[in-house]
Amino acid sequence: MFSPLLAQLVEHLKCLPGVGTKSAQRMAIYLLQRNRQGGLKLAASLESALKEIQHCERCQTFSEHALCRLCADNRRNSSQLCVVETPADVIAIEQTNSYRGLYFVLMGYISPIDGIGPNEIGIPKLLQLVQAEAIEEVILATNATVEGDATAHFIANALKNQNASCTRIAHGVPIDGELGYLDTGTIARAFKARLPLHG
Ligand SMILES: [Zn+2]
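Above: inputs. Below: predicted complex with zinc ion.
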């Protein structure tokens, strides 16, 4: 390689998911040739984010403070707790502007094959939180995958003897979705989760 530093940059860019040698080369050359300012900002931002961001003490999501912004916001409805798998799910739900409660972020799901059990995703902490904060409703919003469902069931079971009610978000036909194009699992679930229109 004509430039060891370029070779090193390419090598390090490959730590990103889905980035192989070719795309890493393209990124490195783009930054050097067309966007050095952007590259420097990226480097600075990577450094400060990776050094400073830890986990929120209460909900486990990413935060550079002991409590994340949502947990620290006393205008949120503290009687509702929505359980999700990742911080990306929190962002997606927040964008809908339809939920004003608080969150608990598992940072994963139960997966015995990978050695991830209830302790690894903070279930004991979740149970403690539900009890300590007198949560009225726990909304299980884990993904509609085998692992997400299993995790939701595990949590629902663990919460059985607590006062909080446990709900699971409905999954089903997407807006503008045509039945003929959906997989059978989605259609079956949509039928199960149907709601009365009257009476
Ligand atoms: Zn938090």
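The first helix runs from residue 4 to 13.
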